[in-house]
Design goal:
The protein is α+β, with helices and mostly antiparallel strands. It has 13 helices and 20 strands. It is about 45% helix and about 20% strand.
C-alpha cells in the first residue's frame, strides 16, 4: 500500500519534470541565434506504477524526465555534408576562374593581347612603304617587345595564381588537422559525460559544427555506433565509437586522429610550374592523399584542379626498351601522348612514373620518324626492374581533367612557339640592311642573360628534339623576348631578301609574308594568331559559366537542405513560446495539486487526529 502522502510525491514529480521542461525551453530560446545549436527537448515518461493491492490493480506514481535530448535528423546531416562539398568545390573554382579571366581582358579598362597584336601588325604594315626607315623599324620592334611582354606578364600572373592556390592548399591542410584534433578531444569529453548517463548535447553541437566546416573542404563520412557491454550485448554502456573519414580514409577514430602534411616537390611536373608546389600525404605513413580524384569533392579538390589541371593532356607512353646510358639507363618509350614540340609540357628533368614507381630523369629526346622518346635516368636498373617495367605505361605527373593553370600555360606556350617559329623562319629567308643573313627575331632568354635562338631546329628535324638542345621546346611565355641583336641594332630586322636589298625595292616581300601571320596562316587550333585570345576566352568562359551555374544550383539545394534541417533541429520562437505557456500551465496545475493535497492532509492530520 502506498504512503499516505503518495499524492504529494506524484505532484512533486510533476513540478520537477515541468521545471526541467521549462528550463530546456529557456535554453532553446537563449540559443535561438547560436550557430550550430540544436533544439533540445525534455523527454518525459510515466513513472513506474505501484502495486497497491486494490481491486483497481496498480496506481500511477507520477512522471519522470529521462533525458534532455537533441532533436536532430542524421539523414539531413549527411545530405548537407555531401552537398556542402560540392558548394565548396564550385565556389573555389569560380573564384579562381574569374582571376584567370582578369588576365585575358582586352577592353577599355586594360590593353590585352588583341590590341597589342593589332598594334604590332599595324607597325609592321608601315614598313611596306619604306623598309629602310629606322624610326619605323624601331616602332615595330617596340610593339613586338610589347607582344613578348604580354606573354611574360601572362605567365607571371598565372604563376601567381598557381602560387596562391598552393599557399591555400597548405592553409586548408592545417585547417583539416586542427579540426581533426578538436573532434578527437570532443569525442573524449562526450564519452566521459555520457558514460555517466547524461547527454553531452552542447559538445555534440560543437562537433557537428566542426564536421560541417570540414565538409566544405573534403568529402566526409561519419560512423557513430553505440558501445555495448561485451558480456551483455543488449546493455548500452553510454559510450559511442565515433569514426570520421575523409575521402574514404580515417581521419578521426574516437580519441585518436590522423594528420596530413604538405611536402614540397623536389622536381616540377610541368615545365611552367612555379617552384615548391605541395603534394599531400598522411603524416607518419607518407601514403599519398589525392584530393583531385574524380570521386572527391570540396574546396581542396578545386584548389588542386586549378593549380595542376592539365585538361587530361599530360605526358604518357609505354616502355619499349631499356638500354645502358651515361650515368644511368636510357628508357625508350613508344605510343607517346605528345608528338609536337609546341605542346611539350614536361620539364627538362624531373620524375617519370613507370609501373607505379617514380624514377628521376635528367633529360629526354624525341625522334619524330619513329615517334619514340628516350629518357635518360640517373640510375641503372636491375634486371628485375627492367622486366617489371617493360611494356608498362609511364607518365609524368597526373592527368587531371580540368583546365587549370598548367593548361593555360601550355596553350600560351603552344601558340607562342608556333608563332615564333613561323616568324623566325621568314626572318631567316632574308638579310639585314648590311647584307648579313637573318636570324631568329623572337628568342628565349636564358637565366644567365644569353639567348636560345633555336638554331638546332630545321625543317628537316621537324618535331625531333632534345631537351638539352637549342629547340623551340625552350621557349615559354616566361622567357620570350625580342632578340637583343635587333633591339640594339634596328638595322638587323629583316624585311628584304638579298635580291630585293640589292635592287633597292620598295615592296618588301618578307614584310608582306610576315603580315599574313596575323590571320591567314593557321597556327593555333585551326585559327590564325588574331583568334588566339578568343580561344582562351572561350575555354575560360565555359568553365566559369559551368562553375557559376553549378554553384548556384548546389547553393539552392543547400538552402533547401538547411531549411529541412532547421525545421527539425532549429529553434522556432513561436513553437518555444507555446511550449513555455504549456509547461507554465502544467507547472501551475501541479502547484495547485500540491496545495490541494496539503489542505487535505491538514484536515486529515489536524481534525481527525490521525
Amino acid at each position: 500500500m502506498p504512503s499516505t502522502f503518495f499524492g504529494l510525491t506524484i505532484s512533486s514529480s510533476a513540478l520537477t519534470s515541468f521545471q526541467a521542461a521549462t528550463n530546456t525551453v529557456a535554453n532553446n530560446i537563449s540559443n535561438v541565434n547560436t550557430k550550430g545549436y540544436t533544439r533540445q527537448q525534455a523527454i518525459r515518461v510515466a513513472a513506474e506504477a505501484l502495486r497497491v493491492n486494490q481491486k483497481y490493480g496498480m496506481a500511477g506514481s507520477g512522471v519522470d524526465t529521462t533525458e534532455i535530448k537533441q532533436i536532430r535528423d542524421f539523414y539531413y546531416d549527411v545530405k548537407y555534408w555531401e552537398n556542402n562539398a560540392k558548394v565548396g568545390l564550385y565556389d573555389t573554382k569560380l573564384y579562381y576562374m574569374q582571376q584567370i579571366e582578369d588576365y585575358l581582358i582586352d577592353d577599355d579598362t586594360a590593353k590585352g593581347f588583341s590590341t597589342i597584336l593589332d598594334e604590332m601588325f599595324n607597325a609592321l604594315n608601315t614598313l611596306n612603304s619604306n623598309p629602310n626607315d629606322l624610326d619605323k623599324r624601331q616602332q615595330f620592334i617596340s610593339k613586338s617587345q610589347s607582344f613578348a611582354t604580354f606573354f611574360n606578364s601572362l605567365s607571371t600572373g598565372l604563376g601567381k595564381i598557381q602560387e596562391d592556390c598552393n599557399k591555400e592548399i597548405a592553409t586548408q591542410v592545417e585547417n583539416i588537422n586542427s579540426i581533426s584534433q578538436k573532434i578527437a578531444l570532443l569525442n573524449k569529453q562526450i564519452n566521459v559525460i555520457e558514460l555517466q548517463g547524461t547527454n553531452a548535447n552542447e559538445l555534440r553541437d560543437q562537433r557537428a559544427l566542426l564536421v560541417d566546416e570540414l565538409s566544405e573542404l573534403v568529402p566526409v563520412e561519419v560512423i557513430e555506433t553505440k558501445v555495448t557491454n561485451s558480456n551483455y550485448p543488449d546493455m548500452y554502456t553510454g559510450a559511442t565509437d565515433y569514426v570520421l573519414k575523409i575521402d574514404g580514409k580515417t581521419l578521426v577514430n574516437n580519441f585518436e586522429y590522423n594528420t596530413l602534411k604538405c611536402v614540397a616537390r623536389d622536381e616540377k611536373v610541368n615545365q611552367s610550374d612555379v617552384e615548391g608546389l605541395y603534394d599531400i600525404c598522411w603524416e607518419g605513413s607518407n601514403i599519398p592523399f589525392n584530393p583531385a580524384s574524380k570521386a572527391s569533392d570540396g574546396r581542396l579538390r578545386a584548389l588542386f584542379e586549378i593549380r595542376d589541371g592539365n585538361n587530361a593532356e599530360g605526358f604518357s607512353g609505354s616502355v619499349q626498351e631499356v638500354t645502358a646510358g651515361t650515368g644511368g639507363d636510357v628508357v625508350t618509350l613508344k605510343n607517346p601522348s605528345i608528338t609536337d614540340i609546341n605542346y611539350m609540357t614536361m620539364p627538362s628533368e624531373g620524375i617519370i612514373t613507370m609501373n607505379n614507381k617514380d624514377y628521376k630523369y635528367t633529360g629526354f629526346s624525341y625522334d619524330e620518324a619513329t615517334q619514340t622518346y628516350k629518357f635518360q635516368l640517373d640510375q641503372t636498373l636491375s634486371v628485375e626492374e627492367k622486366n617489371r617495367i617493360m611494356g608498362k605505361k609511364v607518365a609524368i605527373g597526373q592527368n587531371i581533367d580540368a583546365m587549370g593553370i598548367p593548361y593555360y600555360q601550355a596553350q600560351a606556350n603552344a601558340f607562342l612557339r608556333e608563332f615564333a617559329k613561323q616568324f623566325n623562319e621568314i626572318q631567316k629567308k632574308g638579310v639585314t640592311l648590311d647584307g648579313t643573313a637573318g636570324d631568329s627575331f623572337f628568342v628565349a632568354e636564358k637565366p644567365d642573360g644569353s639567348e636560345w635562338n633555336f638554331g638546332d631546329y630545321t625543317a628537316t628535324t621537324g618535331n625531333s628534339m632534345s631537351s638539352s638542345g637549342n629547340y623551340y621546346y625552350m621557349l615559354t611565355g616566361a622567357n620570350v623576348v625580342v632578340t637583343d641583336n635587333v633591339v640594339r641594332t634596328p638595322q638587323n630586322l629583316v624585311t628584304l631578301t638579298a635580291d630585293e636589298l640589292a635592287n633597292g625595292t620598295d615592296n618588301p616581300s618578307l614584310v608582306n609574308e610576315m603580315a599574313l601571320l596575323y590571320k591567314d596562316v593557321k597556327m593555333f587550333r585551326g585559327a590564325g594568331a588574331n583568334e588566339f585570345l578568343q580561344c582562351l576566352i572561350s575555354d575560360n568562359s565555359v568553365d566559369t559559366e559551368k562553375a557559376s551555374l553549378f554553384l548556384k544550383n548546389y547553393s539552392n539545394i543547400s538552402e533547401t537542405i538547411v531549411q529541412k534541417r532547421m525545421s527539425i533541429s532549429g529553434v522556432d520562437e513561436d513553437e518555444e513560446a507555446l511550449d513555455m505557456l504549456k509547461f507554465q500551465n502544467a507547472y501551475n496545475l501541479a502547484s495547485k495539486m500540491i496545495q490541494t493535497m496539503s489542505e487535505m492532509y491538514d484536515r486529515l492530520i489536524l481534525e481527525t487526529g490521525v
